[in-house]
Amino acid sequence: MNTNIYTNVPFTVTESISNANGFLLPHNLYNKIKTVASYPIKEFYLQDAPDLSDVKFKMHKNAFIDDELTIQAQLIKKHDNGYLVNVIVTKPKPITNHHETICSALFGVTLDKNYFKETKTAC
To answer: Are the C-beta atoms of 13 and 29 separated by less than 8 Å?
Structure first.
């Protein structure tokens, strides 16, 4: 299985997912990154992908209303009967050409081989 699968998803902080002071609420970001973390896994399944288990979630900095974030999810390595998905949320710094990390997460998933999509090879 190819473990170089990754996804980049843009995400804008809005008033509806922020508190009264304009800070992004961590539980809203967590819900979004958990959804994005499932994207690299979904391509292996004909039906719904298995649930992700929490391994690690850490907020590094705050995000504010109108911040343009990027959620990056990557299938990184196999463990026992499954894989890990590494997620990093970044925000571009206005003056420099760098991105700062808003949060990071690591999710685990156990893959059931009975539900993999069949791949066909050319003869």
So the answer is: no
**Terminal Cα-to-Cα distance of the chain (whole angstroms):** 20
What is the C-alpha separation between 34 and 56, in angstroms, rounded? 11
Q: Which two tokens stand for residue 17?
A: 């997912």
Q: What domains sit in the chain, N to C, each tagged with a CATH number? A: 6-114 (3.10.129.10)
Q: List, in order, residues 6 or more apart from 114 with CB less than 8 Å away.
A: none
Q: Which residues contact 29 (CB under 8 A, 6 or more apart)?
A: 17, 59, 63, 89, 102, 103
pTM: 0.80
Nearest CA to 19 among 71, 49, 75, 64? Answer: 64
Residues 6 or more apart whose Cβ sits within 8 Å of residue 123: none
Nearest residue to 8 (alpha-carbon basis) of 41, 33, 31: 33
Q: For 71-122, write each residue's pLDDT tens digit.
A: 999 988 676 677 889 999 999 987 888 999 999 999 988 766 655 544 444 4
Distance CA 19, CA 112 (A): 40
